[in-house]
Amino acid sequence: MKQLTLIGFMGSGKSTTGQMLSKELGIPLLELDQMIEEETKMSIPDIFDLKGEAYFRELEHIVLIKSLNSRGVIATGGGILTNSKNVEQLKSTRNVIYLKGKDSTLIERIKNDSVNKRPLADTSTELEITKRLENRVNQYEEVADIIIEIENKSISEITLEIMNQLEEMKE
Ligand SMILES: Nc1ncnc2c1ncn2[C@@H]1O[C@H](COP(=O)(O)OP(=O)(O)O)[C@@H](O)[C@H]1O
Ligand SMILES: O=C(O)C1=C[C@@H](OP(=O)(O)O)[C@@H](O)[C@H](O)C1
Ligand SMILES: [Mg+2]
């Protein structure tokens, strides 16, 4: 296994599942938000505050392209498909996995996450988050090669399910 890409809404577990997958598969984790933070030496909320979303999206595109040329587990950010160039890129990429969850689960995880700050969700109402999700779901489904339902599954169960599905695809 050379490369796989995790997509899905904020809170679906792309970063944490990505970390476990990279360990299990013995390939690097390419966490796009983390790469942006390292390159800019700024936090995600500071980039949004001081430079704006458009600037963040440009950086996100650059680190995605860089990662797609590398071996590893790519953990994208939930807004990766807001850029149509990224949609085209990922449509022609193999092993794109959509972590699909219910809005109530995603909202609960976003609200309870004390580690990651999410400028496009933390100060939003539940209705606003649900609307943002509704605007994005079709694209996640369109781009994905594999859809994994995350409800009531642990991170290890999801990791195992992804590894099994990838094995099946090879056969
Ligand atoms: N399968 C899971 N079961 C329980 N909690 C989870 C699961 N996946 C992720 N989480 C928790 O949800 C929060 C968001 O996870 P994260 O990996 O940052 O999501 P994303 O990168 O998709 O926004 C974190 O607090 C994480 O520990
Ligand atoms: O959905 C989005 O637009 C975003 C999702 C975040 O990543 P996670 O999906 O890992 O939380 C991060 O890239 C940024 O806050 C914007
Ligand atoms: Mg993440």
Automatic annotation (TrEMBL):
Amino-acid positions noted as binding substrate in the UniProt annotation, renumbered to this chain: D33, R57, G78, R136
Pathway, per record: Metabolic intermediate biosynthesis; chorismate biosynthesis; chorismate from D-erythrose 4-phosphate and phosphoenolpyruvate: step 5/7
Cofactor note: Binds 1 Mg(2+) ion per subunit.
Domain of life, source organism: Bacteria
Family matches, as CDD domains: SK
Enzyme class: transferase
PROSITE patterns named among the record's database cross-references: SHIKIMATE_KINASE (PS01128)
EC number: 2.7.1.71
Binding site for ATP: G11, S12, G13, K14, S15, T16, R118
Pfam families recorded: SKI
GO cellular component terms listed in the entry, alphabetical order: cytosol
Assembly notes: Monomer.
Function according to Swiss-Prot or TrEMBL: Catalyzes the specific phosphorylation of the 3-hydroxyl group of shikimic acid using ATP as a cosubstrate.
The protein's name in its UniProt record: Shikimate kinase
Protein species of origin: Vagococcus carniphilus
Gene expressing this chain: aroK
